[in-house]
Amino acid sequence: MLRPQDTATRERKRLDGLWRFALDPAGEGRTARWFGGPLAGAREMAVPASFNDIAADSAVREYVGDVWYQTEVRVPRGWDGRRIVLHFESATHRATVWAGDTEVVSHEGGYTPFAADITAHVRAGEPVRITVVVNNTLTFQSIPPGVIEDTPAGPRQRYWHDFFNYAGLHRPVWLYQTDPVHLTDITVVTGLDGGDGTVDYTTAASAPATTRVVLRDATGRTVAEGSGASGTLRVPDAHRWAPGDGYLYDLEAQLLGDDGTVVDSYHQSVGIRTVTVSGNRFLINGEPFYFTGFGKHEDLAVIGKGHNDAFMVHDFELLRWIGANSFRTSHYPYSEEVLDYADRQGIVLIDETAAVGLNMGLGGGIFGAQGYETFSPDTVNDASREVHAQAIRELVERDRNHPSVVLWSIANEPESDTEGAEDYFRPLFELTRELDPSRPVGFVNVMLSPYGKCRVSQFADVLMLNRYYGWYVNTGDLPAAERAWEEELRGWAGENKPIIITEYGADTYPGLHSVDAQPWSEEYQVAYLDMNHRVFDRCDAVVGEHVWNFADFATTSGVMRVGGNKKGVFTRDRQPKAAAHALRRRWRKDA
Ligand code: GCB
């Protein structure tokens, strides 16, 4: 699926703004055909944004079930005879869409795009009513999983991941038009041959047509041309995409009509670079790369997981300020704006699916919540795995052309020390490699499944470890933590694979100070990070350090969380804690 673009042959219209919005606690809207007319009793709701924190109402914030969104859009007059598509960048966690009275598409999974060809249901120059029912329920067959439990206050959503279950239309919605004969897909894979770059491209179209491609450099100069639906372009003396140097070429693919006119044109940015794993090294363009950065979240006051350009640019400025060269899209695929911006900024990404919380031994990221078996016919089962497989397919399809993405993470902290886990994950690793042989594949290992016990890391090209020595274990005892951590890490290092520490962190209440570095104080966060860094620096196989987390973020409430997770190096409104300055001294040799 190609993302909407304005090109010489395509036009798009963004449907953001205030939509009508209604909760459906009785679950009656579908049978009562709420899509059949203006939504009764609706309030207004901002799109894109999570709906949860917008209303000052806990019934909205904690709501579980169907919510309805509706808007009316006029199809531009000039779009007569064109193919007209309605495109959602995401709907969390699933949605069904109607154009007028006609159901046009349903989609499962909260963080990947979907679209419907609505040409047959609209007329150029006329308005069309768009109604969307978004459902935010998590079950054992959703990614991420969850369960609805009855409480005296009514049904409550429970889940095993440690961030608030924000939902709704978080990302832009588009209406766009193309020629009836159009490009449907473009894939690029780049390589290096001495100083030259190679770009393997594959295009697909809705009907047989002549295809032409032109590759231009950042100044607009043509550097290579090709014809045919697929082929290889050669770029003499290529400017490589590299960490810190987000140099992009522009590949324009064109479909030609019978008379030789261009009927469709689509632009794909291309960063020429390679990614390989060799022994315990992670190589970008053949050179060892050391990841510095964070696990992040899409999480902001009021708009929840709504994308915001100003915050995105600011976050990347802070990444540069602190000396971070990378981050992980923990724990779901991020907005495509973020991926595009990372490409242009030369920021390296570990791209993660929404498969978080497949571990019923953890509660909200914290040890101890019991009561369910993770992998069983009644919990996470074969049907769940197929949903997970589809989430991987959609992630790889969406993000495979981004040079910033160097590693797939197919799950965060699943149960991984059991036979059930091994059986569940083996085919998912195979699938990911089949979909994209050009990148390494991994998953993020949890502390409950330490070296010697994990049965899933055997499938991974890179070991990604989340460890909280000195926080959840050896709390406040950094000397003991340092010994235990180093001992475990030495075990992993024997595997001869690169190790990225994908999480290490300590909750820190901003402004809390203590002379002797007590847990929760800013001093402790600094001392905790220092201890970790001593351990990493003694272990050659460690090729990266991602602190948990870039910023404080919202979670469900609980005795372990004070107004959310406070492991941020920045507060939720992006003020630095003492640890931010300490990290800057470590990561920026020039600071
Ligand atoms: C983890 C999880 C992350 C949590 C973090 C914590 O291991 O991957 O989602 O937020 O721990 O702070 O407990």
Automatic annotation (TrEMBL):
The enzyme's E.C. designation: 3.2.1.31
Keyword Cytoplasm: no
Gene3D superfamilies in alphabetical order: Galactose-binding domain-like (2.60.120.260), Glycosidases (3.20.20.80), Immunoglobulins (2.60.40.10)
Domain named Glycoside hydrolase family 2 catalytic: residues: 275-588
Family annotation (SUPFAM superfamilies): (Trans)glycosidases (SSF51445), beta-Galactosidase/glucuronidase domain (SSF49303), Galactose-binding domain-like (SSF49785)
Stored InterPro entries: Beta-gal/glucu_dom_sf, Galactose-bd-like_sf, GH, Glyco_hydro_2, Glyco_hydro_2_AS, Glyco_hydro_2_cat, Glyco_hydro_2_CS, Glyco_hydro_2_N
Entries under Pfam families matching the protein: Glyco_hydro_2, Glyco_hydro_2_C, Glyco_hydro_2_N
GO biological process: carbohydrate metabolic process; glucuronoside catabolic process
Highest taxon of the lineage: Bacteria
Residues covered by the Glycoside hydrolase family 2 immunoglobulin-like beta-sandwich domain: 181-273
Coiled coil: none
Sequence intervals crossing the membrane: none
Domain named Glycosyl hydrolases family 2 sugar binding: residues: 13-178
Keywords: Glycosidase, Hydrolase
PANTHER family: BETA-GLUCURONIDASE
Protein name: Beta-glucuronidase
Taxonomic source organism: Pseudosporangium ferrugineum
Source species taxonomy: Bacteria, Bacillati, Actinomycetota, Actinomycetes, Micromonosporales
